[in-house]
Amino acid sequence: ESQLVLATPNLVLRLGNKANNKTITFFLSSDFERMQWIDSISSLKQKCNLPGANTINSLEVTAFIVAMQKGMKTEMGSYLMRNSNDESLLVGDLYMGVQGLEGLEQADDLYICVEVDSYGHYFRKATTKIICRSQTPLWNESFMLELEGSQNVRILLYEDKERPLLRAKHILKVAVYSACIREVERRGMLEVGCYRVSGSASDLAKLKKAFESGEYTALIYAYEAEQLLREVDIHSVTGILKTFLRE
């Protein structure tokens, strides 16, 4: 029973058809395996050149899966096909150090994932930090990987394409924080309940509109918004700060 739990795939891969809004869901065991499926699907789409509006039945889905599996080496179910002559599976702790990487052609945002198999299925066990814009990334990280029914280790290099950038909305918030804190330090340090007491709803609406409608360049905010901060009650100043923090 425990082996069945360990072997249960839990990574989702969904294939959808926009023409008829139908979706087929696959459950896979590792990121590596999921990328193999995606690459195989892309390759088949280029070869077959099927129109997107085509509908498929269950037999065609089965044939599609078989065609993709021919080009994959996922080692699925290898534990079930073992015999008495095979080497014993490993159980225990594996200590691994990830140092660095050389020989890259261009600088990218990179990180490494380590996957270990357990009874024929691979699971992610460790992930390094992201090294930004480097051709020779250095991680110098150590991990302890738990082995249970293991034979193989995969070391996978990924490019991070989802790293958040500092966009205009974030720049706006930084400007609001700076302006409000300066105003609190100027005339609100001795005010009782400075951040506890609520400000005027009309003043808060005016401040929010002034900040969001101003033209911003880098961290320079609209002059009108700063002047309005000086005119309203200190509780309205802290109120607009709390509003932007909540957002």
UniProtKB/TrEMBL annotation:
One of its GO terms (cellular component) is membrane. InterPro entries: Abr/Bcr (IPR037769), C2_domain_sf (IPR035892), PH_domain (IPR001849), Rho_GTPase_activation_prot (IPR008936), RhoGAP_dom (IPR000198). Residues 1-46 form the PH domain. One of its GO terms (biological process) is signal transduction. SUPFAM superfamilies: C2 domain (Calcium/lipid-binding domain, CaLB) (SSF49562), GTPase activation domain, GAP (SSF48350). Residues 155-247 form the Rho-GAP domain. GO terms for molecular function: GTPase activator activity. PROSITE patterns: PH_DOMAIN, RHOGAP. PANTHER family: BREAKPOINT CLUSTER REGION PROTEIN BCR, RHO GTPASE ACTIVATING PROTEIN AT 1A, ISOFORM E. This is EG:23E12.2.
